[in-house]
Specification:
The protein is α/β, with parallel strands linked by helices. The chain has one domain: Spore Coat Polysaccharide Biosynthesis Protein SpsA, Chain A (Alpha-Beta Complex), CATH 3.90.550. The chain is 38% helix and 15% strand. Strands 3-2-1-4-6-5-7 form a seven-stranded mixed β-sheet, sandwiched between helices. Helix 1 links the parallel strand 1 and strand 2. It is globular, with a radius of gyration of 16 Å. The termini are far apart.
Length: 236
């Protein structure tokens, strides 16, 4: 509970047994979350078992894909404010309090991993990934909302009001890794107010399924670019 508002957080999880228990525990310690949802996306390890042992609410999404897992979590979450986050050790729980400070004034508050002060030495946010995220975010800003400063199009860590999630959910279609770009585009297309603040970004535990290789990172970036462009010019 936070200022008499119920708070939910959604963790998409695919084979995260090394990380999920620690992630759930760290967010539980804050004492603000009424609901911690782990969306098991066809894990072949003990992800679901460990999450259940930690008293998280485990739900399953059979459609394979990062976007499908997050969409399922958004539909199931019951909180007045709903967080999305990664359970892979890259984000820190305490930043949730910083995101919440602005949620009363805005519909959505999104983290950005592009402020060098907040980027860990071993974090996977250097050179191509850093500038790729910045450029794509600016491209989306130019297309949809020139007055809404954006610097990161792929940061999972974000919080939104429940009514925003309910309105956006039917419009979200991307099941793959570039879901976050679609989320941003749909939010701006619906004229939701967005605030972006820096969040800490650390080294991941294990290899990323999204940006673990340069080739995959480039492919995801191209998909994000195509998604943003298609939505903008197919509706004018």
């Amino acid at each position: 509970m936070y200022k008499r508002k119920k708070i939910s957080i959604v963790f998409p999880a695919f084979n995260e047994e090394k990380n999920i228990g620690k992630a759930v525990s760290e967010f539980q310690v804050l004492g603000i979350f009424d609901e911690i949802i782990v969306v098991d996306n066809n894990s072949k390890d003990n992800t679901a078992k460990i999450a259940s042992q930690k008293k998280a609410k485990v739900i399953f999404e059979k459609k394979q894909g990062y976007g499908f897992a997050l969409q399922k979590g958004l539909r199931e979450a019951k909180g007045d404010y709903i967080f999305l986050c990664e359970p892979d050790g890259t984000f820190i729980a305490k930043d949730a309090l910083r995101l919440l400070k602005d949620i009363e004034k805005y519909d959505i508050v999104i983290g950005t991993r592009t402020n060098k002060k907040y980027i860990g030495k071993k974090a996977n946010m250097k050179n191509l990934l850093l500038w790729g995220n910045k450029i794509l975010a600016k491209y989306i800003q130019i297309l949809y909302c020139s007055k809404c400063p954006l610097s990161d199009c792929g940061c999972t860590y974000r919080v939104m009001k429940r009514e925003v999630a309910r309105k956006m959910s039917p419009q979200l279609k991307v099941g793959g890794s570039y879901f976050l770009a679609e989320f941003l585009v749909v939010a701006l297309f619906n004229n939701f107010s967005i605030k972006e603040i820096p969040v800490h970004y650390k080294e991941r535990i294990g290899e990323s399924k999204i940006t673990g290789s340069l080739k995959h990172a480039i492919i995801v970036g191209m998909q994000m670019f195509k998604c943003a462009t298609k939505r903008r010019f197919s509706t004018t």
